[in-house]
Amino acid sequence: MRRHRPARTLAILAAAAALIPAPGAWAADTFTAPAYIDPGCEVTFGADTMGLTPDMIASVVGLPIPLPAAPAPQTMVIVELGQSVYQSTVATFLQDCGMTPVPWTDVLWAGDTNPAAGGEAMLDMTVVAGILPANTTLKTATIADGLDFYTALINAGNACGLDGTNASLWRRSQLDTPTGGCIVSMSYAIFEQSLRYFLTLEGLTTVAAQDAWIASVEDVLAALASSGVITLVSSGDEGSGGCQPWSRGVRDVMAPQWPSTSAHVLSVGGTMWAPTNWNGAPIAPMDYVPGQTLMPVTWRNWNLNSDCYWDSGAGTEWPGIGTTGGISSFVTRPAYQNGVASVAPSSTGRLSPDLAALAGWPTWLIPTTTSTFTGVTYSMGTSAAAPLTAVGLAHVNAALTSRGMTPLDNSGGALDIHEVIYSPAFASAFNDVTQGSNNLWSSDIWSGPTAITTQSAVDTAVPGFFTGSTPNGNTSASITGYSAATGYDLTTGLGVPNFSTLATLLIAAQTPAPGGPPPVLQQLPAPESGSCDQTITAYDWGGASAGGWSRSWAQWTNGGQGGPVCTRTLVYSSALRHWLVQR
Questions:
Q1: Which of 192, 353, 571, 575 has the fewest CB atoms within 10 Å distance of its CB?
Q2: Is 241 in contact with 255 (CB distance < 8 Å)?
Q3: CB atoms inside a 10 Å sphere around CB 303
Q4: Same domain, yes or no: 503 and 541
């Protein structure tokens, strides 16, 4: 199972002024590196200034988004397996760097106590807590077991407000915040080709038992989606595979990580920021310089604490780390990816990732994992990219509901998150990443114009990798990774969202055009159960999705005597050429 470990600690930060950056925007393929909001948060590790604060990174992707009025309440849930976080430590760090942290509630699985604090949880909550939109309730869905996706996702559904452990009974109306919705982010996944071995270690020794467990997790993810919950999963930090230990994959085999390959989730890969004269090489530790012109490229770092091991038994770490992507052998390609199927014309597997955000260089600045704030470290990974994207979507939904419009969700229809991001109508909201590779093994690491080190340096760092000048095991011929390209690719998906632009396009899509059809009120008598959660399909015409019904009262029912009804309103989107359910 992919984990990311923070690298080093340093000094206590100075107090910072409470400043909020103005929204940034991608300019074509480049942008200006943001300045530190407070000089006390500009920290040097060794000879290099590294580690950016969440508000700096948010400013580059169009956050925050101004709101004309209070948005509908919504919920953000961060899944933590086997780790917790010291809330006061994160809060102090964010306050010292000029942000106003949102407090959160830890939702524990029944019978569990909070597990020990860990760097993964510290990264997740640092990314999220200081840059959420107004009226957002923040929670963690925490379980003590570090490997149990099923229980973790059930707990996440419960944290959203969904009732009980039978996910088939979940409905959107059960959500604590049904109008604004719920967004779940999970930074845990495992390579598909390693999953059955992992399940064997967990006691599921037959293929049938393993298939049943995988299906149960997929069922929970499907139930979250049908309830409108947007679930994001990080794509992974080990390139396209080929390293040890077993949880990281298998040598010489490329594969994506599950459940980021589930059709019911939004898979988030990683980018890094590179200068415009970048030659394609992995980026090693370097000084961050505000004001320079940068561009997003595929994340591939060198010598910045990898999760990959060349020889896990001997503890020999491979010095490369980068974003994971690929073609699923578990999950059939969903219909929303039909428009990008040419990326893998001979396959019918689900493609990963869908989107990307900053994972690697420059690194994220976070507090150290201590019960009181004593210092900072730097961290990186798609474990930061997924929660950042979750926060961005929360801002988009806040921008919509503050105008009385329908938020994005995951339940199908024109405003389903996958339908939106894969629709050409919203393509201008995504910065297409066209450069870089997630190949951690190729000879460009130690030779040629893109080399960042030498063969002798690799041989010293990774004993046994070479025999003479010939690599043993993984080679550029046997495991190559994937490269970024124009349009969709298997390293960064559709690219990096600008959330302000996405919100603008969605607001326009939900604004009735002059002379267009007026809103349509739909009503039907409430059933004997009194619940409006029942599946009603006869009214889902004109592209409108199911759901959105609420209980009301109308005079026309019961022969004009009046009575309870189920009601909803449809509005027509000229941009999408669909009727939308107004929530």
A1: 575
A2: yes
A3: 17
A4: no
